Amino acid sequence: DNVAKIMGIPFPKMTMDQTVQVLDEVIDQHKSELFHVVTGNPEIVMSCQHDQSLRSIVDEAGLVTADGIGIVMVSRLKGGHLPERVTGCDLLFKLLEAGNHKKWSFYFLGADDATSKRAAEVISQTYPNVSILGRHHGFFKQEDDARIVQEIQSLAPDFLIVALGAPYAERWIHKYKSKLNAKIAIGVGGSLDVIAG
Ligand code: UDP
User: Fold this and answer.
1) pTM of this prediction?
2) Is the shortest distance between the CB of 165 and ligand 1 below 6 Å?
């Protein structure tokens, strides 16, 4: 079996490299539907036990990754054996690295404006072939959603990186899934803070 179920949530038994490989194929296939990657941390798994709307967001996702060593260890106790952790932050670094070779484009949503700006600078210095099509801080009101969604839609990035914190990022991505016009969207928590330093 190539899936480990943890409290009902299916985690594919994939390494980091295999995960990047799958996302590379998603980019190549040019499907019109957005591919949602959920970085499955213990908090999300626990919330899914009582929150049916979050549960259906996770069930509809293209991929759930093992976000943290806790998830990997639980999988071993249950005999499911996930090969390694694939955290949002590590995955983002790997995607920037691969994107630097493949010239992928990104839009970054989330973190405060100074952090977002600094992270974009660091990324464009470190990965010069990655194109940052746009960015927006993560402290906006719901009435700003339409403007932000429209901006992302018109830019049509390969990757929409949503650093709003879990599970807000997952809900936001799911809510606008059909409008975002990104190939892949991933909620990554505090990764932009890490990159900005
Ligand atoms: N954040 C945001 N808007 C908000 C709340 C949080 O952009 O309304 C950002 C915050 O600045 C940080 C990230 O979301 O960069 C949350 O990081 P955290 O590590 O707390 O996320 P988690 O690991 O819980 O998903």
Assistant:
1) 0.97
2) yes
